[in-house]
Amino acid sequence: MTEKILVFGAGVSGLTTALVLLDKGYKDVTVIGQYIPGDKTVAYTSPWAGASILSFASSQDHRLRAIDTDTHKVFKHLADNVPESSVKHCPGIEYRDDTDPEGEDSLWVRELYREFEEIPKKDLPQGTAFGFRYKTYVLSVPLYLDWLVQQITQRGGRVLRDRPYESLQDAIDAYRCDILINCSGNGAKTLTDVRDTNMYTVRGQTVLVEAPHIMTQYYRDGEDGKTTYIIPRGDGTVICGGTMDTENFDLNPDPAISERILRNCYKLAPEINHHKGVEAYKILSYNVGFRPGRKGGIRIEKELRVNAKDGKKVTIIHNYGHSSHGYQSSWGASQRVLKLLEDTNLVAKL
Hints:
CATH topology: D-Amino Acid Oxidase, Chain A, domain 2
Low-confidence stretches: none
Strand order of the largest sheet: 4-5-3-9-10-11-8-12
Binding site for FAD: 45-46
Pfam family, one: DAO
Number of strands: 14
InterPro entries: DAO (IPR023209), FAD-dep_OxRdtase (IPR006076)
Keywords: FAD, Flavoprotein, Oxidoreductase
Mean pLDDT: 93
CATH architecture: 2-Layer Sandwich
Protein name: FAD dependent oxidoreductase domain-containing protein
C-alpha cells in the first residue's frame, strides 16, 4: 500500500488511527500536530484525560455503542497481553442520584462491562437512587501516549511537530499526500475548509493527586448535573474530577472548583486520604483541558477532493468530535476510518 497518508492531529484519535492503518499494511503514514505527546498545554487535550475506559452511549445510540464496544475489545487485549501500554484491569463503582434504573437507558453497559452487578439499595450512600459495580480498564495517559508513538515509529510511521495550518488544503499541499485523516479535534471549528459549526468546547478541570493505594475507580452523577470521579491511572497517581463546562473558557484552574472537586471526592471515597480529611491530599497538579464536543457526535466521514492547482485527487476522512470519550472511542472510531478508506464504493458516514 503505497499511498502517502497524512494524519492531521496528534491526539489520541490521530495516534490510534495511524497505528490502525500501519497495522493494516499502509507504509507511508505521518502524524503531524502543533502539539505532540510530552507537551503540556491546555490547547492539547489528550494529556489531561483520566482516562477510564467506560462508555457514555445511551441504549439508543447504536453507533457509539458499537464504537465503544470495539474499543473495549482492544483495551482488553492490551490489559491482558501488553503491560508496556500501561492499560490495566480496574474495578469500578458508580452511583446515580436522580435516575431510576428501571427506566434508564444507559444501563445497556451491563452488556459491555465485566462482572456487572447492581448494588443493593441498603448499601447505597445516602441520596443516591441506585448504583452498580463492574470491571473495566484504566491507563496512565503519559505512558499510553508515549507507547502509541513508539508503536507508530516501530512500524515505520512518523510523529512530527509542525506549525499550525489554516486549512486541511494547506497541509495537503505541504506534504503532497494522497490521503488525509482529519483528527483535528477543536481545530475543526476554525480550519477554513472545515468550519464545523456543530463543534463546541467542553472545559474540564481536574486535580492530580498521589494515591497509589487507590485501585478502584469511583463515579457519582449528581442531580445538579455535576459528576464526581476518582480515576486511578495505575502509576500511583489518581485523577480527581471534574467538570463538563461549555461556558467557562478560563485557561487557569479555578481554586473554588478545585476545592469542590477535592471535597466531593473525599466524600465519595474517604479512603483516598486514609480517612484523614480533605487536608491530607498529596496534590501533584491542578489541570485544565478543553474537550472537542460536537452536536451529533463523532464525525467519521469520507470526502473526495480534486486539487484545483494540479488536478490531483485526495481522499479526506474526518475523525473528530469525541468530546470527553476520546480514549473510550479511540480504537472503534479508527477502525471505521479504515473501513471508509478501504471501501472504494463507500462515500458516506460511519
